[in-house]
Amino acid sequence: MTLTRQHHLTVVVEKMFIYFILLQPALDVLAYVNVPFSTPLRGLAMAAGIVYICLLPQTKTKKAALFYVTALGLFMLVHVITNAMVKEPFNLSLELTYMIKTIFFIVLLIVYVLGIPSITKQTNWQQVIQLMVLVNMTFIAAVMLLANLTGTGHRSYGALAKEGHSGWFFSGNELSAILGMGFGIVILYWLQKKSRRVKILLLPVIGLIIWAMLTIGTKVSFGSVLVVLGTALVLFLMKAVTDKYHWFHVIMLSAILAGTLLITPTTPIGHNLNLSFSTGMTEQPEEVNPVEEGETTRALLSGRKDFLYAAASQYREASVLQQLFGLGFGGNYEESPKLIEMDFLDWYFNFGLVGFTLFMLPLALIGWRIFKTLMRRPRFIFNESTVLAGVSVCLGLGSAFVAGHILSSPAASIYLALLIGYLYTLSAQPLIKNGV
């Protein structure tokens, strides 16, 4: 293949990965109605990502990426063989599915970190990514509204005393993380629009997305709304000191935040947090529901703690090989596999010390590169793009640690990979322009 054709193909693949984001919510709705498009398409995307890395020009970065992907492949082979020999029961299908879902995030992370900088030649590259995220968040919120109106939403919780639904999407935790990460980019897109008329016209869309986040009923989505709006408000209060134009943003952000807090008690998350207007926004005493007593309540309140204890016990009792290469999906279970639902801990126990180190390596290197670059260029630290993209990434990583369903869930992890690539490109832009 000539260098010209190779470069053209590389550009095509880069654009494909950027616009692939737009398919995500539609794929998840199709999966909900048992149309199996999402798994093969995301599998093809992961394969295309590996091909893309191979097509890149010969640089130290490409060599490092290829070496890493090869090492990851060898690790996975040893991981599967080890567990096939010592794990009983061993379900190859479950093991491979979990393994591929986890690798999907790593491969897409590398693709977006390497691919987004090459499209910065387009002057509107940020607006393109922001607009796609906005379209997806609006699509998700609209689907949830339709599900709400028709009474067909998928319940976020199994417990009857808990309220909230995830529309026509399977996982409430997964969806709350997606909306939590995307909301920062939605607010960024709104803030960076020049026309105040456009900003005002976008307010119903922002309101719909906030309503959807409160309707899921999870703390992650509710907390994300408060963190994003609070951070943006503080940032623009600082900007308004030197530029009176930004008082408009301060007033609008204050109104959105106040409106969110005002409607919260009437929403599922308000019910789940026992918030009421009876004496202002106060927390009511928790009522005991007999349906939730016993094992159901115990699982809801301390399920992660129990699963963590079980995983740690299994890990201590496992052979050195399993401690190094992982216990596999759900650990050395006897009846059915259980995840802790705290992704980084699941990584450690399911893939062992070697696997955890391999998975954390790109995150650590990329994070260090972003931090080092921003420290050298302080003016970027207080730029709204850097701040809100950084908040979105932190919300994604925080959700992965606290609530899970991110790093091994392609539907959510693709957004985290995109946003890390976006933040990396923002921080490295001056270096890229100088040809470094």
Automatic annotation (TrEMBL):
InterPro entries from the UniProt entry: O-antigen_lig
Pfam families xref list: O-antigen_lig (PF13425)
Regions crossing the membrane: 16-35, 41-58, 65-86, 98-116, 128-147, 167-191, 198-214, 220-238, 245-264, 347-366, 387-407, 413-432
Sample GO molecular function, one term: ligase activity
Keywords: Ligase, Membrane, Transmembrane, Transmembrane helix
Name the UniProt record assigns to this protein: O-antigen ligase family protein
